[in-house]
Amino acid sequence: MRKSFLGWVCPLVLLVPAAFAKVTVSSPANGSTVSGPVNYVATATASSCSKGVASMGIYSAPGVLVYVVNGDSMNTDLSLSPGTYDTTVEEWDNCGGATTKAIKVKVTSGGQSFVSVTKPANNATVGSPVNFVATATTSCSQGVASMGIYTAPNQLAYVVQGASMNYNLALSAGTYNTVVEEWDNCGGAATTPVTITVNGGNGEKSFYNLQAGSGWDVAGQGPPNYVDCNPCSDVSWSSNTNISSPSMDGNATEYKLIGNTPYWDVLWDDPLIGTGSTQGLPDSNHTLVPTLHNFTYDVYFYSGELGSSEALEFDINQFFDSTGYIWGHQCTLAGANEWDIWNDVSGHWVGTGIACNPKENQWNHLTIQVQRTSSNQLLYQSITLNGVTNTLNTTYNPGSAPGSWYGITINYQMDGNSNDTTYGVYLDELTFSYD
Question: Phi/psi zone of residue 168: left (φ > 0), alpha (ψ -120 to 50 degrees), beta?
Fold first, then answer.
């Protein structure tokens, strides 16, 4: 008797919540196929809670909450990229209860929001902290509201306002199925999964916000030989840190070329490792620099005066054993609008055929990846501008190091045009990574 009595009571207890709480979804229909933003219309009741329904939300996947509204009803358009989604509409009442309704939907076209993750690469092995670099776009007229990083389902580790992020997330060693998500101001969201393995800090290392640091050297250069001078009679310059607007994170630096004579340039140089290190890594025993092979230059730049520039240059340099590895990258703006790369042996710029069309009055995101190969050649790997990656896979032999210089440096250079017109460029979130 006792066994049959308990067998009857348990199902009754399990059915109580369903009898007194309900989520009704009138749009979209379960199993439907839609295009464009998905219209979610739903209501909820919680008869067993005298305080009523507190809020409702939509999960685009298990653990991925993309929309929340206060109250017992919702009517929102959710931007989803093409694909099939096992979404869930959930209500939470004011007594601590909750009820869900599963809705499968297939989106065929009109994905309106996208997340582009530049770093870390999917399935990469990285050190901690992990540098997450990502941007988001949306067709929502009110733009992207914020972006975030999930380290696991329901574990939101970081949120930033706006359509871009460059954040160093400390993680313990292990494998993580992270998700970078954006939320727009129309109730939409988009995600990009990134699986990473954190090796406890023994992999890639990075220097962050270098544009805000001290220790940059600067010099002018002019035709025909472009020999460094400081001061110079034919060109001058300025740089101002802690610029809050325009800025990605309130800490941009403005660089300005003040022209006087045609085709004069201004070069800023930051010695990161080795001689004169600005990062506390002089490598006096010469045991670090020769072991490093992979380098990434990641920066945001902004200008409303790009039409006054002949070119913008972003360089990575490695010097040891009287050998110089100079990975020069030049965005030629006057006429060609093309990326050039530097051949140090011949001493010439070489056109790549890759277009360089940065946007005026907007932040442009540039990522450059290079490598010193196992046979000690310079390998130009890729250039990514505003989410578009072009692979080069071009190799050159190294040149000679200037004097006894030892270490790793980066350059930022502004080239004057035929009138040497004065112009300014802002840099922000400048990151250099190496291993």
Answer: beta
